[in-house]
Each structure stands twice: as structure tokens, then as C-alpha cells.
């Protein structure tokens, strides 16, 4: 059984127990982060922890662990579980008040912290060669999608709807415009060659990978337009791609059955993917 972290200590995964009254379980009252691991090293760890602090502030959720402690926990689990490539999942919930009550418990109830690792191939992903086929799906999520909460049922439903249509993933559409993918941010390259991604707002998660890609573009003096775009505009784009900690930059080659560009992964997506990975040696 792999090691996990639960509250105060490391323990084997098959011995980790959380109460049925935990607010994460009853109210999806919690936040999370997923940090990629490549060659046994965490990618953009500090940016993920900054976003965790931001999510906690938004929900008035206490985070009684220093970032240095969280880093120690991440690194220890990666080492003990011998993760070369994969991810570390951290979840913080509002703990166990011992009953079901909508109101937050008082500060004497400690939050529940769970950290575990997953090993999977994220560098050699066959989908990079083919590109993803994605479908649009109404964005039925709540109005604070900028907070990374564990309330992920709408994302699961969107992924299931995509699967039922034989697609790889879904992008959410709100008021005729793409917000983001079910678990990634969305970009396109216009016919004129401009890179476009939606501006940050409560409608999308401020992706760590998105921010890194914007930073790379700035360094290379590539122009970026931060604005929303419609599925119709995306269908006429040269390229579409999505970004997340676990997919890095992933080309999208079909949208609702329509080929994007020539129907193959584009050069901008591929070079940004390589530039992103090059940052971590
Ligand atoms: N998801 N938008 C949503 C809705 C997400 O769930 C994610 C990440 C992103 C990309 O953020 P980042 O680049 O910081 O990973 C955007 C993670 C990977 C998940 O739920 O597994």
C-alpha cells in the first residue's frame, strides 16, 4: 500500500480513515491542488500553494500548515512512493464537526488534510500526437469557478457526456462563449496567428499552467489577447489547445466533430508544450 498523508502523519493508504461527518464528504466543503511530478520533481509547486492559499481565503478555510511543511510532505511522499512521473493530490476540507450542519463549525474543529501521489505517464502521452476530440457542454457550474473546490460533479458529468459521444473531453460554454475545459484552461490561435485565452474572472480557474504559458509568451514577445471566444470562432481557428498540470499543453484537433485547422496538432501548441517542459530541465 502506498504512503499517504492524513492530518498529522504519514500512513499506509489502506489505513487512512476519514469521518462520515467530514464536511468534504457531506458538503463538498473543501479545496484541492494537483501538482505534476516529472523526474521525481514537483512542477510549479509554489504557484500551486499560492493558489491553495487563495482558495482557502475565498472560503474562509484555515490552512494551519506552513508552505514549507506542505512541501516536505509532497517531497517525502514522492520519494517514499518512488514517483518518477505523475502527480501529487492535496485536499483540505473543513473537517469533522461530528454532525451534519450547514453552518461552518467553530475554529476548534481542525481541517482535514489529505495528500497522496499517483504515478502515471504524463510526458509520453499518445494524445499529444493525435490531439484531443472535444465536445461543447453547457457550463452548469456555480459562479465561483475561480476557487478550486472539490465540488466536481459538473466536471464529471461533462466528461461522461463527452465519453458518451466518443470524445476525449468537454469544454464548457456559457452565454455562447467557451469558459474553459472540464479540467483545463482553453486557448486558440486565430487565423491571423494571435494566441487567445479567456481573461481571468470568477468564471474560470486561474490555471498555473495557463499563467506559465502566458509568461513564456511574454518572454518571447508573442502577442496574447485575453478575451473570451465562441465555439464557432474556435472551429475556425488555426489551433486550439488546453492546459493543465497533468496534461501540460494538449492539442485539440476536433471540436463538436469539426476538424480544427488541418485536423492535426499545431506548431504553436507543440512548441509551447516543449517550452513549458524545458522550464523544468
Ligand atoms: N484541474 N480549469 C479547471 C476547471 C481545472 O480543474 C484545472 C486543473 C485547470 C488547469 O489548472 P492548472 O494548470 O493549475 O492545473 C483549469 C486539475 C489538474 C484536476 O482537477 O485534476
Q: Could you explain how this protein is built, in words?
A:
- The chain is built from eight helices and 15 strands.
- The protein has 281 residues and is an alpha+beta fold.
- The chain folds into two domains: 3-119, D-amino Acid Aminotransferase, Chain A, domain 1, CATH 3.30.470; 127-278, D-amino Acid Aminotransferase, subunit A, domain 2 (D-amino Acid Aminotransferase, Chain A, domain 2), CATH 3.20.10.
- Strands 7, 8, 9, 10, 11, 12, 13, 14 and 15 form a nine-stranded mixed sheet that branches. A six-stranded antiparallel sheet has the order 2-1-6-5-3-4.
- The longest helix is centred in the first third of the chain and has 14 residues, at 45-58.
- The two termini are 31 Å apart.
- The mean pLDDT is 97.
- The structure holds N-(5'-phosphopyridoxyl)-D-alanine (PDD).
- N-(5'-phosphopyridoxyl)-D-alanine binds next to helix 6 and strand 13.
- Keywords: Folate biosynthesis, Pyridoxal phosphate.
- This is Aminodeoxychorismate lyase.
- Belongs to the class-IV pyridoxal-phosphate-dependent aminotransferase family.
Can you give keywords for this protein?
281 residues, alpha+beta, D-amino Acid Aminotransferase, Chain A, domain 1, 2 domains, 9-stranded mixed β-sheet, 6-stranded antiparallel β-sheet, globular
Amino acid at each position: 500500500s502506498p504512503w499517504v498523508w492524513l492530518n498529522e502523519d504519514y500512513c499506509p493508504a489502506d489505513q487512512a480513515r476519514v469521518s462520515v461527518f467530514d464536511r468534504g464528504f457531506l458538503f463538498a466543503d473543501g479545496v484541492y491542488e494537483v501538482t505534476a511530478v516529472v523526474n521525481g520533481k514537483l512542477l510549479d509547486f509554489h504557484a500551486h500553494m499560492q493558489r491553495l492559499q487563495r482558495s482557502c481565503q475565498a472560503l474562509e478555510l484555515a490552512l494551519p500548515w506552513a508552505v514549507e511543511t506542505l512541501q516536505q510532505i509532497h517531497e517525502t511522499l514522492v520519494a517514499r512512493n518512488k514517483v518518477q512521473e505523475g502527480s501529487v493530490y492535496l485536499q483540505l476540507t473543513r473537517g469533522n464537526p461530528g454532525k451534519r450542519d450547514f453552518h461552518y463549525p467553530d475554529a476548534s474543529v481542525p481541517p482535514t488534510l489529505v495528500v497522496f501521489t499517483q504515478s502515471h505517464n504524463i510526458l509520453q502521452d499518445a494524445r499529444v500526437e493525435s490531439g484531443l476530440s472535444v465536445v461543447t457542454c453547457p457550463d452548469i457550474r456555480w459562479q465561483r469557478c475561480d476557487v478550486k473546490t472539490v465540488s466536481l460533479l459538473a466536471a464529471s458529468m461533462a466528461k461522461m457526456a463527452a465519453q458518451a459521444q466518443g470524445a476525449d473531453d468537454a469544454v464548457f460554454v456559457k452565454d455562447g462563449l467557451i469558459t474553459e475545459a472540464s479540467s483545463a484552461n482553453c486557448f486558440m490561435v486565430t487565423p491571423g496567428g494571435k494566441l487567445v485565452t479567456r481573461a481571468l474572472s470568477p468564471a474560470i480557474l486561474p490555471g498555473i499552467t495557463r499563467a506559465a504559458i502566458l509568461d513564456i509568451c511574454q518572454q518571447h514577445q508573442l502577442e496574447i489577447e485575453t478575451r473570451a471566444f465562441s465555439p464557432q470562432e474556435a472551429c475556425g481557428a488555426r489551433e486550439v489547445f488546453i492546459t493543465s498540470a497533468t496534461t501540460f499543453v494538449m492539442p485539440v484537433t476536433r471540436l463538436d466533430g469539426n476538424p480544427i485547422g488541418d485536423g492535426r496538432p499545431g506548431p504553436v501548441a507543440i512548441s509551447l508544450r516543449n517550452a513549458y517542459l524545458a522550464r523544468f530541465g
